[in-house]
Amino acid sequence: MLNLRRFRSIFLSLLLFMMFFVPQISMAETLDNNVPDARPAASVPILKSAISLPVAGAATTNQLNSARWLVHKDAVEGTSKLRLVIDTSDPVIVSSTLDGNGPQLVLDIKGAVVGDLDDSITLDGQIAEKVRFIKKDGNNSQAIVDLPAMIDDGDYKVFTLKSDTANKKSFRVVVDINKPVPKVVYNFTPGLRNKVIVIDPGHGGSDPGAIGPNKVQEKTVTLGVAQKVKAMLENAGAKVLMTRQTDVDVYGPNASAVDELKARTIVANNNKADVFVSIHINAFSNPTVGGTATYYYQKSNYDALLATCIQDGLVATGGLQDRGTYPAGFYVIKRTTMPSILAELGFISNPAEEKLLSTYQFQQQMAQGIVQGLDKFFSQAAKRGGGL
Ligand SMILES: [Zn+2]
Questions:
Q1: What predicted TM-score, i.e. pTM, was given to this entire model?
Q2: Which active-site residues does the annotation give?
Q3: Closest-CA residue to 269 (of 335, 192, 203)
């Protein structure tokens, strides 16, 4: 649960967002103003085959007429993406594939030939190197984007836009490529033995977190669950570090939200933890809302995997509604350098869940879910091997 102390920093973030992000959106609008892309990249469904309208069978007069690009920076998240826009006279069907040998992103453009545009265009060099336009036959063409390093399916999307006569825009093919995340090499091995795991029980001391209708405090539940997770993990041979072991503030009483949260990330970063798990309980104005959700910040290819594994574990052992996993910019998951998640175990504002969460038995089930999730994570991460 986000508390009032944190509200101020959220408000400031929103202000920053308004100051920086909005003007840059309008910069992007000079290219395309009706692009369905306001959410963080990680949460956008990936459209790998973009279809606008049926294409005529006979030899076409439809052409790739021009192409342009820009890099869009998100001042809040610190991420950036390259957008490439290709104008076509009429609708086309586009499919895309990644070729690791290139490394390249290959777009097959059905229904349009290469028109009067440069054979190749140099791009920014960091996110993508250049795009080349190639004739396939009398009806079809290809656009091949050369990349500095191979990317994942989740790192790009391709879609088409209809013509917009009011704004004098033709049919368009749009390609968004996210800037690669910093390369941190992980070599996870299966099993919990000798893993360094930081458990962060949310809130504590002067900060109770959310409080339920029957006065159960979030900080008490998160510590109860965290202590049980610690015991189970240590039984399995893991090294566990807790950001707090008792009902205290981690930084100090009544510290600023950032100092308090930073103190928690330092525990993980200074001890070179393998993973970081922050435990919270949600709250909402409607008391009937309930369920479990897990949040991650995509710093590596392992953050979303960790979130999925722990969410699955919590839902399996706790049996509350599965609210899913989501990317989010919470401080503790963003500023820890290792894969990390923030789990909202249930809703303290829901009287039934408040009661459950305060029991030893249910806290034990939640802890079991987190431990199962961690075990599953390390075995799946080991299969992925090193790399990002
Ligand atoms: Zn909380």
A1: 0.57
A2: 344
A3: 335
